[in-house]
Amino acid sequence: MTVGQAHPTADGEMEAAAQQDARRLLSLAAECEAAGITRHCLVLRLSSVPAELRKPHHLRLARDALDPLLGASRAQRFILPNDDIAMVWRGPAEAQLSASQHAVTEMFADAAAAMPSVESLWRRLDLPMEAKALRSLVAESLSEHGQRPDGQRGRPLDASALAALEAALAQADVARFARRRAVCVPGQDGRFRGAWEARYLSVDEICSELADGRVASAEPWLCRRLARTLDRRLLALLSANDELRGAGPFGLDLDVASVLGPDFLRFDTALPQLLRGRVTLGFQPADILADLPAFLFARDFARARRYRLMLRLPTCDLLPVLPTEKLGLDLVEIGWSAAATALANTLLDQEASLMLLARADTADAIKWGRTHGIALFEGRAAMPGQPTFAPRPI
Amino acid sequence: MSGRDPTGHGDALPTPRFPPAILAGRSEAGFIPGERHLLAAIERVARAPQGWSAIALHLSRLTPPAPRAHHRRIARALMQDAAQRGDGQVFSLRNGDVVLLARDRAQPPAAVSERLRQLFGREADDAAGLVSEWELPAGSPELLAYTAERLREPEAVTAAEATHPPAGIIDTVAAAIAGARPPDIVHRQVAVHLDPTGTPSGSGMRVAFRELTFSLDVLETRLPATMRPGQDTALLLHLGRYLDQRMLQVLRLDRGSATPLDIGVNADIALHLNLSLPGVLSNAFAVFAEDCRAAGRSLGIEISLVEAVADPPAFARAAARLRRLGARLVLDGVSHLALALSRPALLGADLIKLAWSSRITELPPDDQEALGTGLRDAEPARIVLQRAETEAAVRWGLANGIRLFQGRYVDQMQAVRRMVACPKAAACTLRQCVERAIATGGAGRASCANLPLLDAALPPPGTAPATPLAAKP
What we know:
Distance between the termini of chain A: 45 Å
CATH architecture of the largest domain in chain A: Alpha-Beta Barrel
Helix content of chain B: 40-55%
Radius of gyration of chain A: 21 Å
Helix content of chain A: 40-55%
Largest interface: A-B, 43 and 48 residues
Number of strands of chain A: 12
Number of strands of chain B: 12
Number of domains of chain A: 2
Number of helices of chain A: 16
Radius of gyration of chain B: 28 Å
Largest sheet of chain B: 8 strands, mixed, barrel
Number of domains of chain B: 2
Strand order of the largest sheet of chain A: 5-6-7-8-9-10-11-12
CATH topology of the largest domain in chain B: TIM Barrel
Strand order of the largest sheet of chain B: 5-6-7-8-9-10-11-12
Number of helices of chain B: 20
Oligomer: heterodimer
Distance between the termini of chain B: 59 Å
CATH topology of the largest domain in chain A: TIM Barrel
Strand content of chain A: 15-25%
Shape of chain B: elongated
């Protein structure tokens, strides 16, 4: 990113202010960590938004959208050099957070297709536990602004970059890349409430930090190979002492082979009894079909250990090709796509109550899902506390 | 007694009092087989055997390629879990079987056995015989005999854990693909249409298409062991792009060469190629498709089911492109399980290649029914039964309405027809005729004295193979 792109109207004064904000935030993170001070933090990662959606008026609107959070106790705002905005506050502020999320979602609603995923745009961090991750984000903001070699960013992951990344991952503490995103159900009060949290390691951020900003998704099969490595690291992370103490229901997206590996067995042993039956494992269709005997064995094993099983379809188009009842799975996730709705209209009614609508980033997606009786939602427009919209008649 | 056994071979136990003949002679390089630990444990339990029982999970009876590493790992984990609840111990035997010796306190042995049968039975011909149970002391003699028998057996070779080579091998493999001589690594194989009302040696068999494939097996023999993609599906699929590029390049360079790689030779036989989605969507493919059209050669492109479901938008674009170019879309790599558990026919392919497996005829009734439904959904006339290596495969296909076949058995039927028609056949064996037809060059093919017949689509009718092929009722 160049200075000009990041701050089209920036003068030296604004840039200096952003540098100062970054230093203040680093200092706050260090202070929380050293003294065990509890704070909540939200980072709106505008740096992940396409350049055409990052014009000065977008940045102003985004700052305004976060204004509700200034009403929280001890709230502070930090504008970082790469246009990211961080908010830090103390104590509960669910209503303010929900209002801000809603405002940001509405702001980008017309350009949902071009927007990054929720986890790339909207980072929640709890201090002091995640102070390291916050410092990493701020450092990234500073380096991205001034030092990142532009030639590397956006290039696809290739064999040698993947090999280097795998070597780096073997040494890296991946805890700082651990993320969660909420999967919600519509509540009786017309607002979404959390059903479980999807837990994952952020591939985008791992590539950004450890692979010079290479884009893993540009090479799907290398990305699948990377995912298998990350499965092992995530399972090891979750198996650590106390990692799951007090945890609520959660979901993991895993390769079939990962469920049959030694790391999963260790995770299964470490899983608290209270969470048994409350963990959902998601599988991709290509992994399932690449080794069906292994999938069937993994499915039966996971079911015997009381995991819920979900098929993750990239779009609705594959719904008729991979019927969940034939595959013996409990849930199916479909990615929202306005183009696929015409097909799905005829297919959903029979199993909508066992469906999760992913990438539900807009009011249209929510309305469509509600109309078709979909039970679970994940996306920028389906955060806890956000309105669920009444289902409209078909 | 510990419920945990991290070594998988049982804890060290006092020297047992069984006859030395049972215990001697099987310990090599300090390795003490699980059988000896099991015998020692049985002896110790024999002092107060009431309430003890043993369960053996016979992983050695799973149908190959099982047992795989994950079967052994999960069997041990589940049985360790049961052991923990009943002061038990788990023993891994050298033939792959796993034995649990436990006190019947928390869980009745029958419940444990049933869970194991349910989980592992799918991959056994005889699910009921997959688990043995012995209640002690009544079952002690039988358990001892079973254990002693295992000690007398040679150690079974077990499937190693699948290894994942470093990602850095991709560049090496890509270089090998680019550098290999095409006749060394490109093979060909016909698929035939069989009419069960005719005889396979006569008008009942005609060539439907000829497929050109890269032989990864041959390629791997030219790579150091540490540089082979092996079973890493993701790496193999990623390598598809290099195979595509090379195949399209080879076929372009060999245009007009009058070799088996010249698309203008035997242009009456439809040509099939395996391509990845990026390969179909590449400019090189558009040029190649135009070359085929100019040569009057029909084209079929085979895309793997895994790729099709991994990226539905790209698959839709590839399918549209193939339709526009007049090429047939073939869905490749569909197993009988995939046909039973999914509906690949809805992906809109012209043909579906179903991989034959001897397991098909041994499926439990529910799975048979699901496969039958899958076959009807896919329409048998659209199915090519590939890897038809045996007469049983062809018989099953014909009985189920399938008419297109590809595989070693088909190659042999074709070779029989050629040899009957060939005046120089006395100098050749059937195997040579089969292998020369598969080769696209090299010394083997050069040894054939009747190349026009070797390459022909329709060898004249001759005698039938040993067994006629009409479908059994």
